Amino acid sequence: MPFxxxxxxxxxxxQQELELKSKLGEAISIIPGKSxxxxxxxxxxxxxxxxxxxxxxxxAFIEVSVxxxxxxxxxxxxxxxxxxxxxxxxxxxxxxxxxxxxGVTNWGWNGSNF
Length: 114
Prior knowledge:
The protein is 29% helix and 27% strand. By secondary structure, the protein is an alpha/beta fold. The protein has a single domain (3-108), classed as Macrophage Migration Inhibitory Factor. Strands 2-1-3-4 form a four-stranded mixed β-sheet, covered by helices on one side. A two-stranded antiparallel sheet has the order 5-6. α1 (14-27) runs antiparallel to α2 (72-90). The termini are close together.
């Protein structure tokens, strides 16, 4: 039950959105027990983001929520992969990307909680 939400300062084309969705689906398997089958992804483009007081370059804030315990080693590997994906697909430099991770103990789906 992972969720990846992306706030991106640039406009996304439909092709870029689909490419990101696909690549995120592959990347989430870096976290043991997680797969695209349960991944929910959201994209907020043209989001007003300032990094170090500057908004002149493409920037992204990515939130990764996962059901269960946090896995720092997997999160570190996923950070490298996410930076690569957003750089390759959108041209966002890794030094303009923040990624927030959260392990969630209560997660609801289909009328009940896990």
